[in-house]
Specification:
The structure is a homodimer. By secondary structure, the first copy, chain A, is mostly helical. Chain A has a domain of 142 residues: Tetracycline Repressor, domain 2, CATH 1.10.357.10. In chain A, helix 1 crosses helix 2 and helix 4 runs parallel beside helix 7. The longest helix of chain A has 24 residues. Chain A is globular, with a radius of gyration of 20 Å. Chains A and B meet through helix 6, helix 7, helix 8 and helix 9 of A and helix 6, helix 7, helix 8 and helix 9 of B. Chain A binds a DNA duplex through helix 3.
Chain lengths: 225, 225
DNA sequence: GTCTATAAATAGATAGAC
DNA sequence: GTCTATCTATTTATAGAC
């Protein structure tokens, strides 16, 4: 049910943002407006839950512009995910390649991931949703973005193991053990923010610092010798 | 985008399964067939990704029967979630109320949760998806089913804390720290099972015993003093 | 209880004027 | 680059025969 008609086989002709010296209208940032409106909308309602029309209206532009600037709904969605993974991968790589002891890097990793979820409100929702669905909207190229993140994380683990302070642990399990509780907790708090649910203690927010401390504890006790 | 028209305000008239001594046709198990077909379909494609028509066809019955036996698509979905939570809550409560030391109960909890995910293939997918979306399809009554599960888990924590073997920890964070990695790992393996992804080591399955051992380690190191 | 037929709404996508 | 208008497929849901 991802897309009603078979995907149009990708001729890939990216217009590229804002070439100087054109004859047409100013075009302030139609492409960017579409991108950000779609990112928020997808994170709130999921790929199937958002209509192309709604994205366009939210961006304040015409629906047809989505098909002009991107190749369609699915291509726009993938562009959003790729951008997220590119930025996330760069930040995690910066942590992994810094000159810190492995344990510090793990703490920095937790903080970087937390910052990522706070800087882009759509990041955790969109990512968790896509994972929960089994990533049916992503192609191999987009999935490759995950590898960048995971391999940076794995470098930290390997360094700690070489130094004898970390035990051997499956990198994927370790990664999911840190990020999973965080993503699910954010989803839980979001569920509690829905109207008529304020009275459910089960869905009440937990202070940010308490969450951060908990995640660091998980991280270190899972991978430390 | 949950349902196109406003929900019909719930007169709640459950037909009840199979009353003996009727005059109409045998009706072997139309209701059950619909229930199971829908559970699998919802877990595969999500609430919005499955059409009523598809559920009916998969169950081998007519589409109109869904509206006869349940009140509509949303009511059927909620019935499935409620059944899951009822059964899950009962199993976790059985673990919590047994005569074991707290640490054993935690291990039993992990095993019970794992068994739950293995016994009902749709359980982890459906649950993770619904959580990832912020539970937009659930009413307060259905959400109450979560409380049963969580309170049983909290009883184990409280018992261990009273005995001095567990440290004080937020029950919700502890719960998510065990179940989150498991659910996300299942989703990851499912993503890897999609056609054309067998070559991605990042999505390769991890042996069940390794996962179980990892979850137990997380559980105990998060809550133990 | 079960079915066919259809209503009423909305989806993604495109053609073509400007 | 941007727009309006529209095509076509699909959706949830119901009416009414049997």
């Amino acid at each position: 049910m991802v897309s009603r008609r078979p995907p149009p086989a990708a001729p890939r002709r990216r217009p590229g943002p804002r070439r100087p010296g054109r004859r047409t209208a100013p075009a302030p940032d139609t492409r960017t407006a579409l991108f950000e409106a779609a990112a928020l909308a997808f994170s709130e309602a999921g790929f199937d839950g958002v209509s192309v029309d709604r994205i366009a209206r939210r961006a304040g532009v015409n629906k047809a512009m989505l098909y002009y600037h991107f190749r369609g709904k699915l291509a726009l969605y993938r562009a959003i995910v790729r951008e997220m993974l590119r930025d996330g991968g760069a930040r995690i790589a910066a942590v992994a390649d810094a000159a810190d002891p492995p344990e510090t890097k793990i703490r920095r990793f937790v903080e970087a991931f937390l910052a990522l979820t706070e800087g882009r409100p759509w990041f955790p929702r969109l990512m968790l949703r896509e994972m929960a669905e089994g990533a049916p909207h992503l192609d191999l190229e987009t999935l490759g973005g995950f590898r960048t993140v995971l391999s940076a994380f794995s470098r930290i683990l390997a360094e700690g193991q070489a130094a004898g302070v970390f035990r051997p642990v499956h990198p994927v399990l370790a990664y999911l053990s840190i990020t999973g509780p965080l993503l699910l907790n954010l989803a839980r708090e979001r569920a509690g923010a829905a109207p008529g649910r304020a009275a459910l203690p089960m869905l009440a927010p937990i202070p940010r610092d308490q969450v951060r401390a908990h995640l660091e504890r998980i991280a270190l006790c899972v991978i430390r010798t």
